[in-house]
Each structure stands twice: as structure tokens, then as C-alpha cells.
Amino acid sequence: MSTPEVYSRFHRMLDGLAAMLHRSRRPYRKELLRLLAAARTGWPSADYGAGYLYQSFPPLGLHGFRQTEVRQAQMAITDALRGQRVLEIGCNSGFLSLALSPGARRYVGFDNNPFLIDIARLTQKTVRNEVVDFRVDTVEAFESDEPFDVVLSFANHSTWDGNMTLALEAYFSKLQKLLVPEGTLFFESHHPALENKAQVQETLKVMQKFFAIQQQRELTCGSAWDRGRTFVEASALIKG
Ligand SMILES: C[S@@+](CC[C@H](N)C(=O)[O-])C[C@H]1O[C@@H](n2cnc3c(N)ncnc32)[C@H](O)[C@@H]1O
């Protein structure tokens, strides 16, 4: 794994060169770079992309630390989302949301970083996805009258940017409340460098106060930032 800064600078340059060959992508890239520059001065905490992108988006020739297409393939949840009302916590630049959402009945994705949501909306418009409802919101403040059948929590149960104030128990309790009874949680742990196997077990112990685990497996494909994470499908316990 090269350092995040080197990886990010290299791929930004690579994507820039590729964009020169794709005339139609130039206006999108210009606006993307404008938003990234605005984020650099306007967002005081970590952006997870080391100044570029955390998530990749192959349809527009964008590299990121996390390989969206590989994540989508190995999570294999597209069928489970079909016809469902889906909520994604901390959707970042929304690239995974745009990949996962076709087929969903409704798909809400929120992130507390408004610059990332601007990028998500710009990309959504560019690829003409009309499914996702991107919002700027926080896990702490997010409220909804509509119930969700599925909640997605990918590398979001704690964040190292200092912007997540909920402890694990409050976090999973909140996710349970946002779901219909026995609704589905798809969960991805942090990278093993941040959350090792023993720590994942502790996290899952807390999760099980609110959810019953249906399946658990290790993600083995993708970039160095993708591999070694734990993926869980769980169903919300009926509140007693
Ligand atoms: C490690 S990234 C994971 C992004 C995405 N879930 C994924 O797996 O590709 C964590 C994300 O959570 C967002 N975030 C941090 N604190 C948050 C909060 N309190 N409420 C909502 N989003 C938050 C960050 O801006 C960032 O996009």
C-alpha cells in the first residue's frame, strides 16, 4: 500500500490524462476539481480521499482508494436491494450509492460533508441516475418519518475525522429505529489496520443487542484499502 497522499496524487494525475482523451468528460472533471478545491479550504476535517477521491467511479474514469465495482460485486447485495427502501449512512461522494441504487424503490444517502454531497449530486446528474435522494445530514441528527427496509453502514460505525459523536450502542440502536421490524442491515467493518479481528468481534457484540446476524464473511478482493474487512448481513430485532 503506498501512502494515501502518493496514491491519491498519482490517480488524480492519471484520471486527468484520461479525461483529456474523453472530450465529453471535461466539463464534469472541471466541476469536480472545482468542488475538491472548495472542499480543501471549506471542510476542516478529513475527506477520506487525501485531497482526491475515497471511492472510485469507473463510468467516469475516476480512481479512488475503494474500488466501487469490486465492492459492489463482492458484497453481492444488488438483488437484496431490489424494490426496497434503502438508507445509506455516510455515503461519501455517492459513487457506491449510484452503483447500488438502480432497482431500489427508494434510496436515501446522506453524509455530513456538504462538498461530498455536491460531488454526489453532480455525478448523479451526469450519469442521469434519478433514484438516489442525496442529503447533507449527520447520523446524530437524521430523522425520518418513512421507514426503511434496508440500512447500509459501510465503514461508518465510527469515524476517525472526529465528526461521529455516537458510541457504538447508540449508533446501532439508531439504525434499528430507522428500520422496519426485522429490516436488514448490511454492515462493513473498518480496514483491519484500524479495526482488527478482536475489535470487530467487540463491535459485533454490541450490534447483536439490536440485530441478529444472518451471515458474516471476510472481503478478500479489491484494493489494499478494501481487503480484510468483515461484511455482515443482520436483521433488526423486534423491539420489546
Ligand atoms: C470511512 S468513510 C466511509 C464512506 C462510505 N460509507 C464508504 O464505505 O464508501 C466515512 C464517511 O462518513 C462521513 N461522516 C463522518 N461523520 C459523520 C456523521 N456524524 N454523520 C454522517 N456522516 C459522517 C464522512 O464524511 C465520510 O464520508
Summarize the structure.
The protein is built from eight helices and seven strands, in the order ααααβαβαββαβαββ.
Notable features of this structure?
single chain, 240 residues, alpha/beta, Rossmann fold, seven-stranded mixed sheet, 37% helix, 20% strand, binds S-adenosylmethionine
Widest beta sheet: strand line-up: 3-2-1-4-5-7-6
Could you give the count of β-strands? 7
Low-confidence stretches: none
Give the CATH superfamily: Vaccinia Virus protein VP39
Oligomer classification = single chain
**Continuous helix count:** 8
Radius of gyration: 17 Å
Query: Would you tell me the structural class of the helices and strands?
Result: alpha/beta
Strand content: 15-25%
User: What is the residue-mean pLDDT, rounded to a whole number?
Assistant: 96
Query: Main sheet?
Result: 7 strands, mixed
What does this structure look like?
This protein has 240 residues and is an alpha/beta fold. The protein has one domain (67-236): 3-Layer(aba) Sandwich (Rossmann fold). The chain contains eight helices and seven strands, in the order H-H-H-H-E-H-E-H-E-E-H-E-H-E-E. It has helices spanning 4-21, 26-42, 68-75, 78-81, 95-100, 114-127, 168-178, 197-207, and strands at residues 85-89, 106-111, 132-136, 148-154, 179-188, 211-218, 230-236. It has a seven-stranded mixed beta sheet, with helices on both faces. Strand 2 (106-111), helix 6 (114-127) and strand 3 form a beta-alpha-beta unit. The longest helix has 18 residues, at 4-21. The radius of gyration is 17 Å and the shape is globular. The model has no long low-confidence stretch (mean pLDDT 96). The structure holds S-adenosylmethionine (SAM). S-adenosylmethionine binds at residues 48, 54-55, 66, 90, 92, 96, 111-113, 116, 138-140, 154-156, 159, 161, 163-164.
